[in-house]
C-alpha cells in the first residue's frame, strides 16, 4: 500500500509517540518546522506532542489518540514523529490500523519510531519511512544532503539508486532483491514475537544503533537475541548504518561480523543512516536491490503514489 507523495502546500501532522517536546526541545521543533515551511510543507502539532502526563511521556491513550486523529483528518497528508525516545511500543495496541488502511499517509520517523513504522507496515502493508524527525531538522539546512534526499523521495517520488554521503563498505559479498524492514536495533527488540513485527522471511534487514543507549556490549547481546529468534536464518541480506560509538579497537561492524560469521547473505555497511549522521530515506516495506559487492542499494519500485 502506498501513500500519496507530498505536494508543495501540504500539511503534515506532528505526533510524539515517545518522549514529549519540552523545554529547549520546543525551540528545536520550531526550527525544524520552519525548515519544512521553507520547502513548502506546513505542519500542525497533535494535542499531546508536549504532554508529560506520566512524568516521562504522555499516556499511551493520549499518544494513540494523536496518531489516530492525524489519519482521520483529511487535511493532513503525513504523520511525522516529533522526536525519538524509548516507549512508542506502548501505544501500538491502541492505533486504529483499519483507519490507516482507509486513509494511507506518509508515516515518518527514526530511532524509537522504529516501533510504529514497522508495526504499521506489518498490520496494514503501508510503506513507511525511516529517515529523521521534525526536531532533528533543526540541525540541518535546506541545502543539506538529508533534506535533498527527503525531497527526492517524498516530494518528487523518485526511485532508483540510493545517493551516497559517506564511504560504503562491503562486509560480505552478494547481490539480492527483496522487501526492506528494520531500523533501530534496540527498538526492534520490542517487536520480537509480537503481531507488530514484520515477517522477515526473505526480507532485507537494516539496522542501526544509538551508542549512548546501546553500547557495543549491548549490541552484541541484542544480535545474539535476534540469532536465538532465528531472524538471521530467515533474512536474505543485511544493511548496517552509522554508529558513533566506534573505537580504535572495536567497531559496530566488528560486533555484527563476530555474530554473523556463519551466515552467507550479503552484508553492506554505510554511514548514511542512523544517529549523529545525515540520513537517506529508507522505505520500510519497499522493494530494493542490495548489492554488497559493488556497495550499492537501489529502490526498485514506487514508494509513493
What is the secondary structure topology, with strand pairs?
Elements: E1 11-15, H1 24-38, E2 42-45, H2 60-72, E3 76-81, H3 97-102, E4 106-109, H4 114-124, E5 128-130, H5 145-155, E6 160-161, E7 169-172, E8 175-184, H6 185-191, E9 204-208, H7 216-228, H8 231-234, E10 237-242, H9 252-260, E11 267-274, E12 282-284, E13 287-291, E14 296-299
Parallel strand pairs: 1-2, 1-3, 3-4, 4-5, 8-9, 9-10, 10-11
Antiparallel strand pairs: 5-12, 6-14, 7-11, 8-13, 13-14
Helix pairs in contact: 7-9
Please tell me about this protein's structure:
- There is one protein chain.
- With 305 residues, the chain is α/β, with parallel strands linked by helices.
- 29% of the residues lie in helices and 23% in strands.
- The chain has nine helices and 14 strands.
- It has helices spanning 24-38, 60-72, 97-102, 114-124, 145-155, 185-191, 216-228, 231-234, 252-260, and strands at residues 11-15, 42-45, 76-81, 106-109, 128-130, 160-161, 169-172, 175-184, 204-208, 237-242, 267-274, 282-284, 287-291, 296-299.
- The strands form two sheets. An eight-stranded mixed β-sheet has the order 6-14-13-8-9-10-11-7.
- The longest helix has 15 residues, at 24-38.
- The radius of gyration is 18 Å and the shape is globular.
- The mean pLDDT is 97.
